Amino acid sequence: MRYLTEFRDGALAQKLLAEIRRLVTRPWTIMEVCGGQTHSIIRNGIDQVLPPEIELIHGPGCPVCVTPLETIDRALAIAAQPGVIFCSFGDMLRVPGSHKDLFRARSEGADVRVVYSPLDAVRLAQQNPDREVVFFAIGFETTAPANAMAVLTARRLGLRNFSVLVSHVLVPPAIEAILTAPTNRVQAFLAAGHVCSVMGYWQYPPLAEKYGVPIVVTGFEPLDILEGIRRAVQRLEAGKPGVENAYPRAVTYEGNRAAQQAINEVFEPCDRAWRGIGLIPMSGWRLRMRYANFDAERRFAVSEVHTQESVLCRSGEVLQGKIKPNQCPAFGKECTPRTPLGATMVSSEGACAAYYNYGRTSPATPAASNAASPYQPEP
Hints:
The structure is a single chain. The chain is of the alpha/beta class. Among the domains are: 6-37 and 45-54 and 179-236, Rossmann fold; 64-170 and 255-300, Rossmann fold (3-Layer(aba) Sandwich). Helices cover 37% and strands 18% of the residues. The chain has helices at residues 10-23, 35-43, 46-49, 63-66, 69-79, 102-107, 118-127, 144-157, 171-180, 193-199, 204-211, 222-238, 257-266, 296-300, 315-319, 351-357; strands spanning 28-32, 54-58, 84-88, 111-114, 132-139, 162-169, 188-192, 214-218, 242-245, 267-274, 278-287. It has a six-stranded mixed sheet, sandwiched between helices. A five-stranded parallel sheet has the order 2-1-7-8-9, with helices on both faces. α7 packs parallel to α8. The chain is globular, with a radius of gyration of 21 Å. It starts with 9 loop residues before the first helix and ends in a 22-residue tail after the last helix.
């Protein structure tokens, strides 16, 4: 198939759906590991027009959502200290900590600023030599190169008032954690194209071989996702585990070597807690010891902050694909975008936010949007 032209054609969507219907002979469960893909699936009703044998479940693909509660509380503790300018991307401001969020902290007087790049925070440190500037460095592998460059730039400039609060998480260990869980029912994965554009997909073949699953690197447009599903179903039906790249316009096997070099210079692997999921061994990055002077946890002595998750919030089960957001008893009741219990309800990539924003308020919601969908199967 040709990308860039045909792949955005509505007629091609019909062909892809017809091919998926032709291929499928039994039930299959496929997990997308990207919050952007989740929103595209729900917004466009892709899950509602697929054959009933195919179930899409949503994985831990939202970096904001999996940032541990204790890390949010550490951010709040740092932001509350005198003389601190705490910088973050905007989607972190409404993520609830134990008692409040960064937006509330700002309303109470903390100097919390939204930036659009970690280098914006570096410039603030240059412009405010008498203030401590901290950048909230979260995310999957996608955001790590820019965060690494911010640290490298700050060191080159000799800045002593700049630091980062790091909470990076990695996709391959999360996939392995899902596959080894006693309750796992995922049979294939759609891998996140933006992560693979940085890291390549050389890490995935060993996982596919070890656990006997197909992994398809997939983009974010509806047709990208349909093509990823088609390839996954084709491999499932043929009993052929392995890895395919369905996003070649952005992803290569090796990935971006320059970005990987910057990451490896600044960060090293570590165990990381995932919000609602728990500790996954070697599933994160932290600053290497030679960059310890830029570590906000060390600088502000907040590493001992520990917290307890809400007993009402079942976002951990959502992030592991055990339940759909609208199967949580608190969904749309105690938990809404105005009164979120977990990050999955307020993040722009959160599955709960997708279900709430696009009207999936009940597990029994009919596929009423099919009539308006350009991807409706032909009679």
